[in-house]
Amino acid sequence: MANKCEFISLPDDKLERRRNLSFSFNYEEITIPSTLASFAKGRTYFIHTLGCQANYRDEEVMGGILEKAGFKKVASEKDANIIIINTCAVRENAEDKVFGYIGNLKAIKAARKDTIIAICGCMVQQKHIIEKILDIYKHVDLIFGTHNIYELASMLNEVVTKRVRLIDVKSLPSDIKENLPSTRLSSFKAFVNISYGCDKFCTYCIVPYTRGKERSRKMVDILKECQELKDAGYQEVTLLGQNVNAYGKDLNDGSSFAHLLDEVAKIGIPRVRFLTSHPWDFKEEMIDVIAKHKNIMKYIHLPVQSGDDEILKLMGRRYTSAQYKELVDLIKRKIPGVAISTDIIVGFPNETYEQFLKTVEMVKYVRYDSAFTFIYSPRNNTPAAKIKDNVTAKEKSQRFRELVKELEVTVGESSSKMVGNTYPVLVEGASEKNPKMLSGYTETNKLVHFKGDISLVGQIVNVKINESHVYSLMGELVK
Ligand code: 5AD
Ligand code: SF4
Q: Counting C-beta atoms within 10 Å of the first and last residue's C-beta, which end of the chain has fewer, N or C?
């Protein structure tokens, strides 16, 4: 398309750090400029999303806006008139993938010059990334951030009518927008945002900068959305927040996560999940609510990050390994059969091998049912990135492999214990590896493959587990 750049705003990390902000709620529906609606006739879109669940929820909102304008979704970028890359910045390898993907789009743009290529999400909340895109990837037409997705229609209208490259990335969050259109990616499981942003500022993490200050949605709005999902036949909702425990604190109206979870469970959706819980401030009241409701899944994702107290302190995690273990003990005591998963970072700056072994010891203590493991990745402008690191990449990889081996033992043990028993499984679709098989998840989030008819997708069925393959299970349908 066009070459001229129009800078509406660029992100500034000093502003992104600001927390003394107040917010209000906006219920106005978005309007579609008539020129964009005319342009959309017969045209298509494709969104490529990377990263966490919050990004997938954003994709649904962007899809909703584009469809309201009149664009139709297509299954491949090759057939799309508008391609949006919805990015993640949490680790460098996520960013590398995005650059690879943008590079590949060059051929599409060369073949069809009027294709509009847009980049949004956490990665472009960093000024140096925008500079790199503008410098190297001249085929990108639109760059917008995490705080102005709701303006997608007007931004596209600018690109289409003025034929400019538009850059509009805000540093500060807007008010909370309700009533945005959305096209759900699934007809039986849904993500529901309960809060946006994060105020924890763990020293390695870029999220508090890219997603801004913690802002909770009003409980009535969340409950309304959950009720609508129930009425539409949804089998599962996952309540989303970077730190769900903090839900409601900013509302100053007595709202809390325990209360919200209790109310959501009462709506009666068969499966209620939530992500992510910070071990700090995980209230006993929350554990009691989880234990009380049959439809709250007995699965808690509780990122530990490290098992060493000194590293936890340097990470700014606000708990010690002993406090974490105490919390796990309490959860296991009050919620029989609960599954616990975690996130672990190896190779934080200057982590010693002995400190790393404390993490291994934590894994042995908790006996995690599943885990996500990462090698530390320095993120621009975060406090940890300023620490001079004496651990080599080779040592970090070696520790990573050692940790994965240890996790295979506890995860394998938790999967093996399920063999011979029957569990309810929400059927997701045909298995990725073998299209003749179906796959789905147990209440404790274990992946199960089994033979069955495709018509079962979206239903909860009983599956007897026959074999454990550590990270997945093989089973058979039972009546
Ligand atoms: N390097 C490696 N892993 C990270 N995470 C967050 N920031 C970083 C980083 N800089 C991991 C944490 C978090 C998960 C979503 O990503 O484990 O819980
Ligand atoms: Fe990042 Fe910590 Fe916030 Fe999680 S709690 S998003 S790791 S700053």
A: C
pLDDT of residue 474: 97
pLDDT confidence band for 437 (50 / 70 / 90):
very high
Name the maximum alpha-carbon separation found in the chain: 65
- Whether residue 428 contacts residue 459, with contact meaning beta carbons closer than 8 Å, is answered with no
pLDDT value for 268: 98
Ligand of minimum distance to the alpha carbon of 278: 2
What ranges make up the beta strands (E) of 17-113?
25-26, 44-49, 72-73, 82-87
How do residues 166-216 score in pLDDT, each as one tens digit?
999 999 998 999 999 999 999 999 999 999 999 999 999 999 999 999 999
Please say which residue of 151, 168, 185 terminates a domain: 168
Q: Is the CB of 90 within 6 Å of ligand 1?
A: yes
Separation of 378 CA from ligand 1 center, angstroms? 10
Give the CA-trace dihedral at 251, 252, 258, 263, to 10 degrees.
Answer: -70
Query: In 10 A of CB 196, how many CB atoms?
Result: 21
pLDDT above 90 as % of the chain:
96
Quote the number of domains for the chain. 3
Structure tokens at 268: 């009666």
Residues 180 and 214 in one domain: yes
CA of 268 to the centre of ligand 1 (A): 34
Residues 6 or more apart whose CB falls under 8 angstroms from that of 62 comprise 47, 84, 86, 120, 149, 152
Query: What are the backbone angles phi and psi of residue 206, rounded to the nearest 5°?
Result: -95, -15
Range of the structural domain that residue 467 is part of:
422-478
For residue 211, which ligand has an atom nearest its CA?
A: 2
Kindly report the number of other CB atoms within 10 A of residue 219's CB atom.
20
Cα(236) to centroid of ligand 2, in Å?
Answer: 25
